[in-house]
Amino acid sequence: MEISYLIIIAFLFILAITDLTVGVSNDAVNFLSSAVGSKAAKLKTVLFVASAGVFIGAAFSSGMMDIARHGIFQPQYFYFSDVMCIFLAVVISDVFLLDLFNSLGLPTSTTVSMVFELLGAAFIISIIKMSSGTMDASIVDLLNTDKALTMIISIFLSVAIAFVFGLLVQWISRMIFTFHFRRNLAAKIGIFGGIAVTSILYFMVIKGLKGSSLVSADVKAYIDEHTGMLLLCSFVFFTLLMQFLHFCKVNVLKIIVLIGTFSLALAFAGNDLVNFIGVTLAGLSSFQDFTANANGLAPDQFVMTSLMESAKTPVYFLVGAGAVMVFALCTSKKARKVLQTSINLSSQQNDENDMFGSSPLARNVVRVTTNLVNAVSKKTPQSVKDWMNERFRPLEEREDTAFDLVRASVNLVLAGLLIAVGTSMKLPLSTTYVTFMVGMGSSLADRAWGRESAVYRVTGVVSVIGGWFITAGAAFILAALVATIMYYGGLPAMFIMIAIVIYILIHSHISYNKKQKGDKEDNKMQVIMTSQDTNEVWDMLKLHTAETLSHTLSFSAETYKRMFEAFSKDDPRPLKGSLSKIIDEKNLMKKMRRAETRGMQRIEQPLAFERSTWYHLCTNSCQQMLNTLTRIGEPMKEHTDNSFSPMSQIYIEEFSPYCRDVYNSLMDINTIIATGDYTNAESVSEKAKDLKHKLANLRKTQTIRLHKSSGSLRMDFVYLNLIQESHELLSEVRNLLRGGNKFFASTTATKDVEYKL
Asked: Collapsing DSSP states into helix, strand and coil, what is residue 748?
């Protein structure tokens, strides 16, 4: 029996390592987004600073381990077999949920998942024991309801608190510094730096040391007695130091951001390490107590009163966990994906914030807020509005950052202070909630949520917050379900669940790697947006654009052919699928065009001005091709959905050669774009032009048929629309060929192939 539970303990440790890796991938956004978004330093430098904070912060987390032991349920009412069932259910559910959210690229809360998994598993085991009559106690006795309710309220209340404080503090900071802060830093940077670094020091050292098992009681007592003096001395010292560094031409704001990154990473490890290893260590402690003190009692007879004692976590466990977290932080690709979601939603630029689309809720929120702001604006004196608008006047030149160093500093300092309060009160405050909502509040204060992007950002924020609430419900239900299966199934069910979760993790890892290998767009755009060599940027931009255009051409050709074949067979399913894929392709095209336009801004201006017209001609043609396919497919789908008369054999035989020729024209031009060889461009364009004339004649023939027809006109109209839109499709693809010839031409003097449309 002990061997079986020893295997379960070993598996808990394996899953704890996995949980550490997955959890850091999710939570890295908390302390990396400000430094990465403001480009305070190179990514390697930011990762090094954050890694140091994570590793050191692991030593401060021992005070939070009690939450997993007796923070949610009362262990004196549970047997050893019960708590092992609870702990195993929590770890299995946690790994599955976090991996799911990371794969989707959405930030979620490890704290919320851990708390609600413990609550769900403990709740269902309590209900089972009460219903079976084996325990004479109420649910209030079995669960630590007061503590659980306090933690849950603090977690969700942090959403509103962090957003409001982020909004107010950033608004005040922007009023003081403005977006043109580099002009007048001398009189302000010392005090700002002193406040920022003292605040960071307060929660990093004073609050952190008080929760550390490595600091003696005498030192903690001294800190308690002299906190005010220590803070005052720190403020004076760091104010003078920051002012001196500024006079030495050192960018103090970058120093604040890097120190803030370090401290927030430290706070993350100190606050969130319990989420990853707390349950596993509680399981180990339970097993050690059972093997040492059971005295022949069965696992379902030995009461776990030992878990009521405070956790005494060995230092080597904390150091090992810190090392795993650092390794995951430096190597995780999923962390980059989650990080990009947060940066996009808080970016000062309006370029890439429609990744979540729009929603009725977001549109109503934006409309109501806009009306409210307009009403307040009408009551505000014009002189006050002019003065405030001047303070918020953006830079004329476009910066290649998501936001500036002032906002990055506010994000880090404020998030750290809020987390420090929660940690000092032994509350598992969600670092994800706090840092994300501080970032959203500060971006709103900075007027980053403009009319062009507000609806997308609100949708994104609602989607992320909604994901958090879904996490809570899903964690509770999943942990309860897994715990029920294992409770009734015993050890065999536990081992079956272990096998299932191993399969899920392996399958998820393989699927994600395949997706990464097939997706090369991010790597190319990373070169385009980070390289300082304009020639390299131009070469990569041409390659990226050629692949985008080639993909659209290939998709258009295949979709055109598929829709005609489906319509001729009176099959609505392929038509529905094709129209759905066209929508996805339009969204992808919009995203690629935005990214490539950003790349065009990074090449030499004369070259950009020369080629931008042809680039936009190409992309406009691609968008019009997709619109044409939509206009072809929608009447076909409506016709087949209503079970109207199918396409006559005469029409099928008549148009099949034209369909084949249109398909071949698109694929021929696709070959030219993909290979970059425009030698045959003129002849291919002429063939497409001749095909247009043939389609024009066919259109006249069909028009005559319409006038002579005495039966139903539904099919005749759909057929005429197919002919007309095929003609338009060829016009757009010839425009694309012409634009591609000009855009991809060598920067040296080369002879462009000229031809008439």
From this structure: coil
Q: Tokens 């970032």 appear where?
A: 439
In the 8-state DSSP scheme, what is residue 73?
Answer: B
Sign of torsion over alpha carbons 325, 331, 337, 343: positive
Residues 6 or more apart in contact with residue 135 via CB below 8 angstroms: 77, 129, 142
d(CA 384, CA 472): 45
Are 90 and 82 in contact by the 8 Å Cβ rule? The answer is: no
Per-residue pLDDT of 503-514, as tens digits, reads 877 877 676 665
198 vs 231: CA distance, rounded Å: 7
- Write down the residue that tokens 């007309």 correspond to: 724
Written as six digits, the tokens of 209 are 């040391």
Q: Is the four-CA dihedral 58, 64, 66, 72 of positive or negative sign?
A: negative
C-alpha distances out from residue 699 to 463, 565, 584, 694, 727, Å:
48, 20, 31, 9, 9
DSSP classification of residue 8: H
How far apart CA 337 and CA 196 sit, in angstroms, is 29
Strand partners for 62: none
Question: Cβ(24)–Cβ(328) under 8 Å?
Answer: yes
154: left (phi over 0), alpha (psi -120 to 50) or beta: alpha
| Phi and psi torsions of 450, nearest 5° | -75, 175
User: Looking at residue 539, what is its pLDDT?
Assistant: 84
Instruction: Tell me how crowded residue 508 is: count the other CB atoms within 10 A of its CB.
Output: 17
* Beta-carbon count within 10 A of 86 CB: 32
Measured distance CA(27)–CA(750) in Å, rounded: 52
Tally of CB atoms within 10 A around 679 = 10
Supply the pTM of this predicted model.
0.66
Residues facing residue 303 across a β-bridge: 79
Contacts of 517 (CB under 8 A, 6+ apart): none
Burial of residue 122, with CB atoms counted within 10 A of its CB: 0-12 exposed, 13-18 middle, 19 or more buried: buried
Distance CA 76, CA 304 (A): 5
Encode burial over 697-713: b for 16+ CB neighbours within 10 A, e otherwise: ebbeebeeeeeeeeeee
> For residue 515, what are its two tokens?
């997706």
Contact 699, 655 (CB under 8 A): no
Residue-wise over 10-41: b if at least 16 C-beta within 10 A, else e? ebbbebbbbbbbbbbbbbbbbbbbbbbbbbbb
d(CA 464, CA 448): 18
Low-confidence residues of the chain, pLDDT below 70? 1, 26, 29, 59-65, 99, 102-108, 134-135, 147-148, 151, 203-215, 271, 333-358, 396-400, 402, 420, 423-429, 450-453, 468, 509, 511-532, 710-712, 746-757
- List, as one string, the DSSP characters of 448-472: -S-TTTHHHHHHHHHHHHHHHHHHH
Number of C-beta neighbours around residue 299 at 10 A: 22
Q: What pLDDT score does 757 carry? A: 40
Rounded distance between C-alpha atoms, residue 277 and residue 279, angstroms: 6
> Amino acid identity, residue 200?
I
Domains in the chain, please, with CATH? Answer: 2-518 (no CATH), 521-743 (1.20.58.220)
Integer Cα distance of 116 and 397 in angstroms: 48
